[in-house]
């Protein structure tokens, strides 16, 4: 358990667009989640006089690459430690198409950490030495390329945040939901609420029957299979 006054989890995001994360701190999103979310702009810490954070790739080719010295300077300024040591204190995670896939298992693993750091790339991505020297992990949101790491970072914060104490009205929802071990990695049964009939489509009779055993059997029969292997 964290000490009194200390959040259950502390998440720092490094990005060129820290204001994008403001909405995640607003009341009503993950209502009472015990989450301390901060966002830092690489540009505020760049040691380069023109305020630049990127440079052209060695070897030529299109696009720009996020510089390792800029990322290191931002990490050192925020944590007051040599940039290569920060990953020994907390996971430092690069959002990258080359990372391991963000699955329910990875979310559960991250939610157990007291603090994580997320590094959002832009342009062609990071100088490889960010991965080698500064990061302890890399996570991919899915097999497609986004313009930046911010949306993957938000997905991590959202998925991890809803597993923290106070985030959900009923913590039991977490154990019996899609992709969970309880459902063997499969998806949840369909939900219905009032009205009982809408545009000719009725709620299945069994859900109105009051027969808890029959409802449980119907729900089990209507769970979806685990997603297949990604091609
Ligand atoms: C335009 S992408 C770079 C793509 C890179 N040139 C490639 O082909 O793999 C810029 C940044 O967006 C983020 N990004 C893009 N797609 C992502 C994904 N599927 N998962 C996680 N991060 C992603 C990463 O932070 C990446 O550094």
Unreliable stretches covering 5 or more consecutive residues: none
How many runs of DSSP E, i.e. beta strands?
Answer: 9
Radius of gyration: 22 Å
Count structural domains.
Answer: 2
Query: Class by helix and strand content?
Result: alpha/beta
Detailed description of the structure:
This protein is of the alpha/beta class and 231 residues long. The chain has two domains: 9-161, SPOUT methyltransferase, trefoil knot domain (Alpha/beta knot, 3-Layer(aba) Sandwich), CATH 3.40.1280.10; 176-221, Trp Operon Repressor, Chain A (Orthogonal Bundle). It is built from six helices and nine strands. The strands form three sheets. The protein has a five-stranded parallel β-sheet, sandwiched between helices. It is elongated. The chain binds S-adenosylmethionine. The site of S-adenosylmethionine has 19 residues, from strand 5.
């Amino acid at each position: 358990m964290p000490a009194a006054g200390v959040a259950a989890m502390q998440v720092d995001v490094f990005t060129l667009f820290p204001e994008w994360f403001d909405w995640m701190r607003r009341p009503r999103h993950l209502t009472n989640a015990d989450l301390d979310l901060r966002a830092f702009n690489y540009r505020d810490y760049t040691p380069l006089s023109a305020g630049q954070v990127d440079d052209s790739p060695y070897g030529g080719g299109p696009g720009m690459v996020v510089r390792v010295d800029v990322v290191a300077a931002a990490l050192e300024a925020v944590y007051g430690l040599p940039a290569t040591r920060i990953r020994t204190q907390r996971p430092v995670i690069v959002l990258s198409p080359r990372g391991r896939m963000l699955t329910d298992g990875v979310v559960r693993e991250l939610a157990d950490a007291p603090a994580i750091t997320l590094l959002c790339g832009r342009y062609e991505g990071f100088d490889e030495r960010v991965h080698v020297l500064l990061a302890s992990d890399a996570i991919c949101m899915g097999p497609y390329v986004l313009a930046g790491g911010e949306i993957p970072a938000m997905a991590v914060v959202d998925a991890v945040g809803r597993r923290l104490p106070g985030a959900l009205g009923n913590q039991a929802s977490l154990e019996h939901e899609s992709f969970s071990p309880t459902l063997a990695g499969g998806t949840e049964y369909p939900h219905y609420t009032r009205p009982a009939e809408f545009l000719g489509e009725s709620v299945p009779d069994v859900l109105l029957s009051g027969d808890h055993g029959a409802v449980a059997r119907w729900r089990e029969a209507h769970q979806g299979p685990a997603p297949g292997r990604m091609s």
